[in-house]
């Protein structure tokens, strides 16, 4: 009976060693996946900001298009906030949300919004989301 008991102990130790090796790799992959998700969403947000700028510029200004783009930006911002717990990303998301809220207020009142805070905040988000 002693050999069977030793075999179980060896198997258990081997299994624990395998888990000990896998856990850091899994945690590392999770962090990389979060960074890549963040970076991908930052690119989407940057593209949405460009689209918003186009919708609000010149004689072709279209408030309905701007509203659709602002809604898309809100959803993308929520996704970034949900997928990370990084303090720098959180601050960048908050800054971007505040800038977009100001744009929305300007659009709602019929004024031409200042897009520079939005572009700055989107750039900040892209910077902190870079893997």
Automatic annotation (TrEMBL):
Highest taxon, organism lineage: Bacteria
Region of interest called Disordered, as start-end residue ranges on this chain: 104-131
Signal sequence annotation: 1-31
PROSITE patterns, alphabetized: PROKAR_LIPOPROTEIN
Sorted UniProt keywords: Signal
Protein name: Secreted protein
